[in-house]
Amino acid sequence: MHLMAEKRGTSGGLRERKKRATRAALAEAAVRLAAEHGTDNVTVEAISAAAGVSVRTFFNYFDSRDDSFIAIDAEAGERVRRAVLHAPAGLSPLEAVREGLATELREIERQHGLWSLYARVLRTSPHLLVRHLGAHMADETGLAEAIARRIASGPDGPDGPAPGDRATPSADGGGDVGENERRRALDLYPRLLAAVAGTAVRVSVDYWCCRQEERSFAEVFRQSFDLLADGLPAPRR
Amino acid sequence: MHLMAEKRGTSGGLRERKKRATRAALAEAAVRLAAEHGTDNVTVEAISAAAGVSVRTFFNYFDSRDDSFIAIDAEAGERVRRAVLHAPAGLSPLEAVREGLATELREIERQHGLWSLYARVLRTSPHLLVRHLGAHMADETGLAEAIARRIASGPDGPDGPAPGDRATPSADGGGDVGENERRRALDLYPRLLAAVAGTAVRVSVDYWCCRQEERSFAEVFRQSFDLLADGLPAPRR
DNA sequence: AATCATTTTTGCAGAGCGTGCACTTTTGCA
DNA sequence: TGCAAAAGTGCACGCTCTGCAAAAATGATT
Asked: Is A186 in Cβ contact with B203 (below 8 Å)?
């Protein structure tokens, strides 16, 4: 039974560890087989055999064959969420999310081997790409909550006023924006930011894949978030 | 055989029309049955029977059972794309997309009956929601292309400079921002805008569903795009 | 109206997916 | 060492989806 990198999760009893190992073995076998033979030509039987368990056991770990293909980065969302919560106090929400994502992406670039296989699998079968994105959409809720908590605890941290304190360009003459509207924004804003940030990552990866020769990923990623921070202004021709 | 609203697509021979009718009948039967009995309790056999065709014929129209559940709005993306292309010349790209989407959403609100069933189905089974969003992601490419063409033809209308007129990438000795960087932005920008706009719609719908009593959808939708246009600034507490 | 090429529909066989159930093996603990 | 709980396994069964070849429907032509 091949084992994935055991970096994380050496805690718990033998039972717990073996469960994690089996799950990881199944997930890695799935990706390796899919990268080699194509997703459609990999049966659950083959994956189970490669991981050294029975077919029935496979379905004890995954609800469907496709789930096993996209099980690699199951914990990435949680790490980003925590990074946003513990980001330096001076950062705006958008900046905090950007930093958290950048860290995670660097982490992924370190485990380049398995991830390039994974990327090939996703590229080959769009069907799985959609499931992959769907899995990350589930993380959005947690991220939005982290953003909301960050805002609630103060955009400036415990120490001092804000650098990014923008004068509100309210369209209503003289009068301020209603208190109600401000409260409502608090609810919509975190969700929107979480979702839009995830989208920006996706588009950046997509764009970068077509032009790896011209630009580094970090550069594309940075530009995407700059565009967001500027309000997606029409580019000058 | 029940027929869906025949609003669009009365053109073509009898063959063509009958094919469209069969496909529509299958799609509608799928949604109605799923809304009533739950997605998991609807077999292909039941859908086919409700539409008056054989099981084998079902698979001549859809690659999978799930595809039949999300086949209602197959043409929405194309309509938005066209709306963006033909939007008033004075609008910025972001504004043009917002208007195109708003029009489509009003159109949907008109066919309230089937769409509320559809919404229930998507709400009940997240699995299908992901497929639904994936289907719309495919539209992103077309929308991005429309945005790019709109930018190329001039943000001020057809009376502007030539469409294919791209300044030569000269060595960036003179200006502040390099000419190369500006050209690159043209490529990344449309994709980012298309994707982010779709995301904003999704978040708006999601948010609105939880608070229909407090705010109209148009209001939420408008606020989301205002936040985008402002660069997602940290809300004031 | 009768004929014919084309397109669509259909039944059938078969591989693979996924689940419920009962049974065996392994694990952690007393 | 023995025991209760958890994990793994084999089997039966229904559903999904595909390939193939035959049957039915369609639209144009004579």
From this structure: no
Of B126, B196, B223, the CB nearest to A199: B196
* Residue for token pair 């991005």: B144
**Residue A33's closest CA among A74, A69, A3?**
A69
Does residue A11 reach within 7 angstroms of strand C, measured from its CB? no
Residue A14 C-alpha, separation from nearest chain B C-alpha, in angstroms: 34
Whether A45 shows a pLDDT value over 60: the answer reads yes
Query: From the list A191, A200, A234, which residue is nearest B203 (CB)?
Result: A191
Q: Cβ–Cβ of A192/B227 closer than 8 Å?
A: yes
pLDDT digits (tens, 9 = 90+) for A121-160: 999 999 999 999 999 988 999 999 999 999 988 645 444 3
Predicted local confidence at residue A186, as pLDDT: 59
Mutation to test the A interface, candidates B136, B203, B225, most A Cβ within 10 Å: B203
Q: What is the mean pLDDT of residues B135-157?
A: 85
Non-local (6+) Cβ contacts of A16 within 8 A are: none
pLDDT at A7 over 60: no
Of B167, B189, B223, the CB nearest to A188: B223
The full 3-state SS of B173-220, as one line of letters, equals CCCCCCHHHHHHHHHHHHHHHHHHHHHHHHHHHHHHHHCCCCCCHHHH
- Across A157-171, b (16+ Cβ under 10 Å) vs e yields eeeeeeebeeeeeee
Give the pLDDT confidence of A189-199 residue by residue, as tens digits: 999 999 999 99
What's the pLDDT tens digit per position in B111-142?
888 888 999 999 999 999 999 999 998 899 99
Cα–Cα distance, A128 to A126 (Å, whole number): 5
CA of B59: nucleotide with nearest C1' = D17
Measured to protein CB atoms, the chain D nucleotides within 7 Å are: 6-11, 15-20, 26-28
Q: How far is CA A89 from the centre of its chain?
A: 22
Complete domains list, chain B, with CATH = 15-69 (1.10.10.60), 76-157+178-229 (1.10.357.10)
What was the pLDDT predicted at A188? Answer: 94
Residue A162 confidence (pLDDT) = 37
